[in-house]
Amino acid sequence: MQSNQQSNQQHGKQSGLQTAELKGVRALRLILGDQLSSYHSWYAPAADTHGEAPGDNSTGKPDPEILYVMMEILPETNYTLHHIQKLLAVFGAMRNFASWLRDQGERVVYLGINDTENQQSFAENLRHIAELSGARVLEYQEPDEYRLQQQLQHEFAELPLEVLRVSTEHFLSAEEDFKVKDAGSADARAPIMESFYRHMRRKHNVLMEPSSDSKGAAQPLGGRWNFDSENRKPWRGDPAAPPPPQWPDQDALLHAVQADIQAAGIRSFGSVEIEGFVWPLSRENALTALKDFVKHRLEHFGPYEDALSAKEPFLFHSLLSFALNVKLLHPREVIDAAVQAFMASQGRISEASVEGFVRQILGWREYMRRYYHWAMPEFKQHNVLSAERSLPSWYWTGECSMNCMAKTIDASLQNAYAHHIQRLMVTGNFALIAGIHPDELDEWYLGIYIDAFEWVEITNTRGMSQYADGGGIATKPYAAAGAYMNRMSDYCRSCSYDPKKRTGEKACPLNALYWDFIARHHERWKHNARMAMPLRTWERFSSEEQAAIQAQARQHLDHMEDL
After folding, report:
1. How far apart are CA 518 and CA 468, in angstroms?
2. Residue ranges per domain, the chain?
């Protein structure tokens, strides 16, 4: 790939929309900021991966009548308030991808955020380029996000072009894999994720082995589908967490993008240290990051995937979610790399670790994407627990007296990242038991995390984390008191609150808020078998203790800004 310095020069303020450069164009191909897949058949016409691990294009011959169009536009930076690292990463990865296309001999128009001819609109920029080039056809890959699907479908219908939409060729599941019960009726129900995951394991023959019985059906390797119960160890400092890889070749590009973002007046939040930027922004760096993960962190990923630590924000997590979600990596090659490392490790990597990682990609990620497209747009309105409180301002600053919240939010502001349990059981748990409106939490999650795109964010936030859909995704609310935090983290050791106390000045606020949450929704939980234990515990408290807990909870809820 050409150097980032060359890329920056090409992506300066001159857009190069000159008629002489655009002659002989038959079709425009639009590439969105999360469609940076060098393995797409657009660039390798003879290749057809059919869900298998892709290879990079080395055989496709560029079509001189095709013009690829990429653009940085203000509406995509402003639909929510984004972390600065997310803006830098998306624009930086886009610019790298445009350079890669040119290296393949493709014709490319790239409109930077400050280009004078950039009309800050997908449709208007495409209309202008079509007029200059004489293009008669527009091709685009299907957007992952529902809002963008609807927007582009509406806008492109008004263009004087033949419009063709194609698959991104990225995901491993098809619509028929998501088997909805009573489809089309008011009682339609999505499959549970575990059954979907097992189906996907069979379909793609991942961690499977031939059956020893007469039926001959493939069985999970080792006879077990799920090792979740073995992947819940707290981390106490040993084994040491390896540092993530660094990408000095990206520094110049990131500085240039940062200057352009500032010049455009784009609002953002969070912080960035470019020389320590951990997110790979090119295909080459993403592949290196994948190799680094399976070599240095996969071994300990499983046992500690749920662990929480103020000392190590990344622990043994892969840090591949951004690269996957903008499609620098294909999910099958990520799965294959993990499985191959496991098979070659001679027992060093446990089955629990590789299965836990595969489940995140082949199960959870694919399921959330399918669920999103099945449930939208109604899903975005769900709020069955009638949560109406405002998000405390300290979600945006980290200035909170609860150490678990302060450390998790501060790390998120520094890194644009938190792992899945930090999101679910720290920031998400507090919002759930405090009754924060899911709209406000959705906005925060969508903006703060570098890997957050609505198709994967809202299903986890509004569904799995906040139970706002009434149990469509999660069969029970993921709510916890101070005991969980004390068991799974090191946050409580240096916190001013006592995780064992429910009431009193030093009592952990999570305790009163948790039990108040159980009491507030008592009637709903009576019909949920998985909530029987906390209900029985609440009912065993004396009426005096219940009253004291609820009074303490009201104090916290009335003065959340002071927590």
Report:
1. 15
2. 4-166, 175-245+280-376, 393-562
